[in-house]
Design brief:
Elements lengths: L9 H23 L3 H11 L7 E5 L5 H10 L4 E6 L2 H10 L4 E4 L12 E7 L8 H10 L1 E12 L7 H19 L3 H13 L3 H10 L3 E8 L4 E7 L4
Parallel strand pairs: 1-2, 1-4, 2-3, 4-5
Antiparallel strand pairs: 5-7, 6-7
Helix pairs in contact: 1-4, 2-3, 6-7
The structure holds S-adenosylmethionine.
The site of S-adenosylmethionine has 20 residues, from helix 1 and helix 3.
């Protein structure tokens, strides 16, 4: 399927993020009017980390969620950010040289079972070519009792927000993408959101991989969903 169908083969997703890395942070701030920092704080809260813990941020991009997690595990904890785009990782390392940023595919994480106290993913799960495989990997690397947290864009289901969302996402975001010089990437964005499960569906997918006590909050007028589940303590 092409970009308009919201799915792309992995090498193309990787190449696309390498290409847009330089404008990524600026586009985030413009598209969310700076609100993404607040959403990352809420996602980090749901990871329920404590000082001294180890956390993994999957598909970390330029590392903003990893930086937020680091404030929760300080002073002696550790945060690892993992991504398959080298260009994104370079920018993350410049932003937060004190954190560990490593190359890795979310569908085959290079970590041992139960190595982390929590695993998060921010605006990355919708790019996974196999969502259940990505969820299974995040669950595998977290210790029993630890959290898996997913921060993602979701489609508001009721008017008038659903109308506003369609206007914003289907018209303005691709226009901003054209202005930023990458129309393909920013028309892929709305279509990848459209094909991603709704909040209930994502909750069910998390339960299906064995996560317990799966809950979610919807915020930003219905466009952002933050899901959390706990790794089975048995
Ligand atoms: C929209 S960006 C999100 C970046 C960051 N987490 C944030 O909150 O801004 C998506 C990131 O997911 C990464 N990504 C997508 N699929 C991946 C996969 N299978 N393995 C590793 N990284 C992946 C991309 O390289 C990109 O950096």
């Amino acid at each position: 399927m092409g970009a308009s169908g919201g799915t792309l083969p992995e090498p193309q997703v990787q190449a696309m993020f390498d290409r847009i890395a330089g404008v990524y942070d600026r586009m985030n701030s413009v598209m969310t009017v700076g609100m993404h920092h607040r959403w990352r704080e809420r996602a980090a809260d749901l990871a329920a980390l404590k000082p001294g813990n180890r956390a993994l941020d999957v598909a970390t991009g330029t590392g903003d969620l990893a930086v937020e997690l680091a404030t929760r595990v300080a002073p002696d904890g550790e945060v690892v950010g993992s991504d398959f785009s080298e260009r994104m990782l370079e920018l993350a390392r410049q932003k937060a040289p004190e954190l560990r940023f490593e190359h890795g595919n979310a569908l085959d994480l290079p970590y041992d079972d139960g190595e982390f106290d929590a695993a998060t993913v921010g605006f990355g799960a919708r790019n996974f070519s196999d969502l259940p495989a990505g969820l299974r990997e995040m669950t595998r690397v977290v210790r029993p009792g630890g959290r898996v947290v997913i921060l993602e864009i979701t489609t508001p289901e009721r008017p008038p927000l659903s109308w506003f969302f369609r206007l914003w996402f289907d018209r303005l975001v691709p226009l901003l993408g054209r202005l930023a010089g990458d129309p393909d990437a920013y028309s892929y964005l709305p279509s990848s959101v459209r094909r991603f499960p709704n909040a209930r569906g994502l909750g069910a997918a998390m339960t299906a991989v064995g996560l317990m006590d799966v809950r979610w909050v919807i915020t930003a007028g219905g466009i952002i969903a933050i899901h959390a589940g706990t790794v089975d303590a048995e």
